[in-house]
Write a structure and sequence with these properties.
Helix 1 (2-27) runs antiparallel to helix 2 (226-258). This protein starts with a helix and ends with a helix. The chain is an alpha+beta fold. The protein has 2 domains: 2-81 and 224-258, no CATH class; 86-220, no CATH class. Strand 15 and strand 16 (168-172) form a beta hairpin. It has helices at 2-27, 226-258, and strands spanning 37-43, 46-50, 55-57, 60-61, 66-69, 72-79, 86-88, 95-98, 103-106, 112-115, 121-122, 128-129, 135-136, 146-151, 156-161, 168-172, 175-177, 185-188, 191-193, 202-204, 213-216, 218-220. The strands form 10 sheets. It has a 3-stranded antiparallel β-sheet with strand order 10-9-13, with no helix packed on it. The protein has a 3-stranded antiparallel β-sheet with strand order 14-15-16, with no helix packed on it. It has 2 helices and 22 strands.
């Protein structure tokens, strides 16, 4: 009977984690480049009273054993890197990767992080930076007083200056990809860092080595489907309630035992 209490408690804890993941997805439904997560679970050890296939008589074995599960635990929180829909902004420095890939961003400590958020701006030195002022790597410096900025699908950056008809190439945007993007570590602020699970970054020009091309004037929206998240939230809530009901039922059965005379 006490197993039922503990088993149901692990179920409630698992659904709390599930709800945490779902609520984070819903909270970031409008976050540029956000990738939704999914909680995954696995059952715990089993209390075995009789092994499956145990000898049950002369020349006879038991077709099934007696095993009682001891609950559930969170095995992983999996990131889904499905590409989000395009949001047209017509901003010259807004870039979207149409396919696999990440923009490399240099952190304050010199380390390189990676993002799908291509809403870039210029810092006081004309360098392309993200919304938090972190520099795109390799650096792209846009001179002051340019008439226009053009980014080709292959990442080549050109500018048009006053009195000039032909664009002038000033740099090349590089993006990176990973063997297992789901293994990236989330840092917050739309940034990821590599881990032993993700593998090492493979750098290249957009449109090469299986990487996506760039689309200027667009930003990648979150890939969260709000309808799916609402359904998942209802399912998690009902599972949590059922586990709490199981605890109440086990408690009532224990109470009946205590009341025996």
């Amino acid at each position: 009977m006490f197993k039922a209490l503990n088993t149901s408690a692990t179920g409630m804890q698992a659904q709390q984690t599930n709800m945490d993941v779902i609520s984070n997805n819903i909270a970031n439904v409008n976050t540029h480049g956000f990738k939704k997560s999914r909680a995954e679970f696995e059952d715990l050890l089993y209390h075995t009273v009789k092994e499956p296939g145990a000898q049950s008589g002369l020349n006879a074995v038991s077709p099934s054993g007696v095993q009682t599960g001891l609950g559930v635990k969170t095995a992983a929180v999996q990131k889904n890197f499905e590409i989000g829909s395009a949001k047209v902004t017509n901003g010259a420095l807004d870039l979207m990767i149409e396919g696999p890939g990440f923009f490399p961003i240099q952190l304050e400590d010199g380390q390189i992080a990676y993002t799908r958020d291509g809403a870039f701006q210029k810092d006081p030195n004309g360098r392309l930076v993200d919304r938090n002022g972190k520099v795109l790597v390799p650096e792209i410096v846009i001179p002051p007083n340019v008439a226009g900025v053009q980014v080709d699908p292959n990442g080549q950056v050109s500018i048009i200056t006053n009195g000039q008809q032909n664009p002038q190439v000033i740099g090349q945007i590089q993006i990176v990809n990973f063997v297992n993007p789901a293994g990236l570590k989330s840092l917050g602020k739309n940034l990821y860092s590599p881990s032993p699970s993700s593998g090492q970054p493979v750098q290249g020009s957009p449109g090469t080595n299986g990487m996506g091309q760039l689309a200027q004037g667009q930003i990648e929206s979150s890939n969260v489907n709000i309808v799916d998240e609402m359904i998942n939230m209802i399912s998690a809530q009902r599972s949590y309630e059922l586990n709490s009901k199981a605890i109440q039922a086990a408690d009532q059965m224990l109470q009946s035992l205590n009341n025996l005379r």
